[in-house]
Structure formats: structure tokens, C-alpha cells
Amino acid sequence: MLAPLLILAPLLVLLLLAAAWDLASYTIPNFIPAVLFAGFLVFAAMTGYTAAAFGWHLLASAIGLAAGFALFALGYIGGGDAKLFACIAAWFGLHDLLQYVLVASLFGGALTVFLLAGRRWPLPAPLAGQAWIARLHEPRAGIPYGVALSAGAIAVLPYTELFRSVTG
Question: How many Cα atoms are found within 13 Å in the side-chain-facing hemisphere of 106?
Fold first, then answer.
């Protein structure tokens, strides 16, 4: 039981890293989704996923990748967000995917409202000196959706089949 719990800690660290990176630079480097997906593969092997369960998780990831890249092609999210979404979907599988999508969407909406509202006010001088904050404050800047995707995953994780399988 300790080994599966140990792999959830890096999952959380990677989600926080993706959020912080996206917040600071509007990018999510490829190594983060790659390590997230590799971590899922290791987790599935360590916990003895059946071939059927593994297949359902891969299907969730494929659906996530297709949906993510459709949103990317339409210009709604970045490519890093699409890859991050697909890798998180692999972890949650079809069973918890809808719950995750709803919660991440709520976080995304809240983040969007917060940033759009904040951009209407001038930045205080100490904050304006921080390049990443100034970039977030630019009126034509996008929304770092990786923050919402990561926050949604962290919020949903304790209520997932994945978490229950590890904690008993």
C-alpha cells in the first residue's frame, strides 16, 4: 500500500509544477505531461490494473487528447493544456472523468472571471515590477488554463476511484 501512495505524491508535485509553470509563462513544458503519463503507467503496473481497467483509462486519455486538441485547434487552449488534460484523464479514467471535467471547468471559469476583472484595475507598483504578473495583467493575454486543470485534478483526487483504491 505504501508504494502506490508514494506515486501519488509526485502526481501532486507535477500538477503543482504544471500550474506554476503555466501561470508564470503561459506554457507547460512537454516533460510534465510525459512524466505524468509515465507515472500513470508505473502506477497501473504497480497496482495490478486488469487489462480491461487499463484499457478504460487509456480510452479516457484518448478522449481527453482528442477533446484537448480540438479545443487547441479552435484556439481556446494551448497545446500544453491539451496534453496535460489527456494525461490527467489517464489517471482518472472514464469513471471519474466527467467529475474532473466539471470541477476543472468551474475552476477555469473562476480563474477567467478573476483575471478579466483584475485586468480592469491598474496593478500596484510592487506587482507591476514582476514580469509574470504584468504578463497576466495584459488585457489581450490569455488564460493559463493549466492552473484550472491542475486545481481541478487536485480537488477531485480524494473523491476518485483511484484514490479509494490506494487508501482502502
Answer: 10
Across residues 34-57, what is the average pLDDT?
94
Q: How many domains does the chain have?
A: 1
- Read off the pLDDT of each residue in 64-87 and give the average, rounded to a whole number: 97
Stretch 78-102: mean pLDDT: 97
Q: Residue 75: which region, alpha, beta or left (left: phi > 0; alpha: psi -120 to 50)?
A: left
Phi, psi of 39 (to 5 degrees): -60, -40
| HEC assignment per residue over 58-94 | HHHHHHHHHHHHHHHHCCCCCHHHHHHHHHHHHHHHH
Find the Cα–Cα–Cα–Cα dihedral 145, 137, 123, 111, rounded to 10°. -20
DSSP classification of residue 159? G
Range of the domain at 65: 2-167
pLDDT for the residue numbered 114:
95
What pTM did the predictor assign?
A: 0.92
- Taking a C-beta distance cutoff of 8 angstroms, is the pair 149, 10 a contact? no
Q: Is 7 exposed, middle or buried (0-12, 13-18, 19+ CB in 10 A)?
A: middle
pLDDT, mean of residues 31-59: 95
CB 143 within 8 A of CB 115: yes
Q: Residues 111, 116, 120, 125: is their CA dihedral positive or negative? A: positive
**Mean pLDDT across 138-153:** 95
